[in-house]
Amino acid sequence: MSNTNNQILKNTNAQILDEFNASIMFDKELYAQDIKGSIAHSQMLCEQGVLTSDEQTAIETGLLQVKEEIESGNFEFTLATEDIHMAVESRLTEIIGEPGKKLHTARSRNDQVATDFRLYVQDKSVQLKNQLKQLVATFVDVASKHTTTLIPGMTHLQHAQPLNFGYHMLAYANMFKRDFERFESSYERNNYSPLGSAALAGTPHNIDRFSTCEKLGFSSPTNHAMDTVSDRDFALEILFNISTCMMHISRISEELILWSSYEFQFVRMSDEYATTSSIMPQKKNPDVPELLRGKTGRVYGNLISLLTVMKGLPLAYNKDTQEDKEGVFDSVKTAEISISILNEVIKTMIVNTDKMEDACKIGHLTATDLADFLVQKQNMAFRTAYYITKDVVAKANELGKDISELNIDEIRSANEELKDVSEEIVMYLDLRNSMNSRNSYGGTSSIQTENQIKYFEQWLEKN
Ligand code: ARG
């Protein structure tokens, strides 16, 4: 575009372009990190003899005043100062004059934004990790009350084998523990200080990156300035970690929706988390888990969006990466609220143990146990046992009973091969016995479930 055209555009569209270019409307979220980074930078510059101690004191005091103004709502954010970095620096200079103009020595907004954003992501990773720990504790707590409560285990959403409800809850404890670990390992992988990378190639000033790194709580400085200013992997990681966590949240939400439906009635959610219909007064809708499930979509969107922004970007910094922040802020807020609400929903849900147990009596859940019994105790070939079991299922259907409810005479009359079968078989068809027979490591028996609860209790204590 020629200069004249550019000028025309500026005159007519100046406001629009300022708005288009600016990030202050959203990156003000990073004010605390920006000020923290600037204080560390000024202290380091003073240690290195680049700033006098008077200048540094003025800068630090001024920065704290800016922080106070922002926190008390007395700071005016304007488009004139494009982003949070310029906003803080220009207000600082208004307050303290000349020394304020020295703060930007030996840095660039490129390493500044990388530092601020990384500090934010690190802080939030720790916070989300702590929230996930609470959530794991809640699932473990519910599990510990239900190690003998029967619930039909499903595959393909069809009744498969009896489980205990505690075991089912522990599946979620495991998912959220892995999420916890993902935030933890991302934190470790990304705990490097970008500050001092400057625009893309380092700086001729005599800086000490190890000093600012230590002041900011990173484990060491990043070791390649150009990579650092163009890298947003840390932001992608938190977006992925949140997406996976929300995917898990959407799965328990879906189960809560099903379980609280009239057809299941396995749980009742506290009235706070269900709303009434504006037209059907008898209804209680599971809006909260539906929203948790729905919010998973926006979080995935934020991940795909940043992956797409980063795709094919040439090195090093490009303004495209200004698009990195809003999605991360949105995903973090969504995850914070979602985890805390889910935690309350699980804590307050009422478990209808009778309905769960009744549901186990539909669908002949212990049919496999019968076949296994015939193989193990009668030395029968599996395929033969399979067909005999089919006859027992047919018998139960004929009597309008579940296989677990048959007495020994009914079983014996189902097939010629069973006419002398040992009475022990009745026990094999019993639902609770069937659940407890799956005592292999990681299986659903009450003993295994209790072992897993102990494991989680130790984990919760250690973390
Ligand atoms: N607001 C910018 C961002 O969010 C800060 C970095 C700008 N750097 C630059 N050279 N224009 O990415």
TrEMBL record:
EC numbers on record: 4.3.2.1
Listed SUPFAM superfamilies: L-aspartase-like
GO (cellular component) term, any one: cytosol
Domain Argininosuccinate lyase C-terminal: 364-436
Keyword Cytoplasm: yes
GO MF, one example: argininosuccinate lyase activity
Localization terms from the record: Cytoplasm
EC top class named in words: lyase
Primary localization class, coarse: cytoplasm
Ranges for domain Fumarate lyase N-terminal: 12-301
Keywords: Amino-acid biosynthesis, Arginine biosynthesis, Cytoplasm, Lyase
Pathway stated in the Swiss-Prot or TrEMBL entry: Amino-acid biosynthesis; L-arginine biosynthesis; L-arginine from L-ornithine and carbamoyl phosphate: step 3/3
Alphabetical GO biological process terms: L-arginine biosynthetic process via ornithine
Catalysis: reaction(s): 2-(N(omega)-L-arginino)succinate = fumarate + L-arginine
Family: Belongs to the lyase 1 family. Argininosuccinate lyase subfamily.
PANTHER family for this protein: ARGININOSUCCINATE LYASE
Protein name: Argininosuccinate lyase
Annotated source species: Malaciobacter pacificus
